Amino acid sequence: MPTDAILETRGLVKEFKGFVAVDGVDLKVRRGDIHALIGPNGAGKTTCFNLLTKFLVPTRGQILFEGQDITKEQPAQIARRGVIRSFQISATFPHLTAMENVRIALQHRLGVSFHFWRSEKVLDTLNDRALELLDTVGLRELADVVTIELPYGRKRALEIATTLAMEPKMMLLDEPTQGMGHEDVDLVTQLIKKVSANRTVLMVEHNMNVVSRIADAITVLARGSVIAEGPYEQVSKNPQVLEAYMGSEAAELQGAHG
């Protein structure tokens, strides 16, 4: 296994009562890259994510993280290794403030879950770090705002902050810009680029403008199999990829960089 590959799958298969959702996927994600997993609806992208974080058990195949076989590990073990799936594991609490949400994530990481009374010193340390993380995602000024009152894009930024609190080596982002307006898409895209500076990001994303702007490498799935891999300029011109997307989606794929 090359030393620059932080995550690798070998012949990954997932079957559901005879239906093959993921069919022999070989994936290599290089350390420090933003790697996008794209493909038309039903291609198997989310199933792949669920296999990597062990929400689903592979039918066959291997998953390796930092050279270690993690195929049989439980979701909690995967998280402890530093593979953190944003927007699922780190869902925010709507009636707590932005600050309180990040602090809970930090407490979880420190193993002092919810014990606010343990020590003022511990709490102060958490406050300082929580403010640092909020600053990283541009939310320091909104630290005391109740999460439910935050605009949609800012909620996503908060979810990234709570993920960062878990000190991930690798962040898995499941459609981070889904349902957003143009301004929020730009905000979250810039944020992903910023937080990827010291870590690896694997993302499922439908918005081809986002993928073309920030992805270092792209894997394209169709019907559960990898049909192309490489930089955006290469995969967006691949005939198999264009055929898989077809019509307006294919036009969007080709036009995203224009």
Notes on the protein architecture:
This protein has helices at residues 45-52, 75-80, 98-110, 120-136, 152-165, 182-195, 208-214, 232-235, 239-245, 247-255; strands at 5-16, 19-30, 34-38, 60-65, 68-69, 83-86, 170-174, 200-204, 217-222, 225-230. The protein has 258 residues and is of the alpha/beta class. Helix 3 (98-110) packs parallel to helix 5 and helix 4 (120-136) packs across helix 5 (152-165). It is globular, with a radius of gyration of 19 Å. Among the domains are: 53-83, no CATH class; 85-168 and 187-195, Rossmann fold (3-Layer(aba) Sandwich), CATH 3.40.50. A six-stranded mixed β-sheet has the order 6-7-8-3-9-10, sandwiched between helices. A four-stranded antiparallel β-sheet has the order 2-1-4-5, covered by helices on one side. It is built from ten helices and ten strands. The model has no long low-confidence stretch (mean pLDDT 88). A hairpin with a 2-residue loop joins strand 4 and strand 5.
Summarize this structure briefly.
This protein is of the alpha/beta class and 258 residues long.
How are the SSEs ordered, and which strands pair?
Elements: E1 5-16, E2 19-30, E3 34-38, H1 45-52, E4 60-65, E5 68-69, H2 75-80, E6 83-86, H3 98-110, H4 120-136, H5 152-165, E7 170-174, H6 182-195, E8 200-204, H7 208-214, E9 217-222, E10 225-230, H8 232-235, H9 239-245, H10 247-255
Parallel strand pairs: 3-8, 3-9, 6-7, 7-8
Antiparallel strand pairs: 1-2, 1-4, 4-5, 9-10
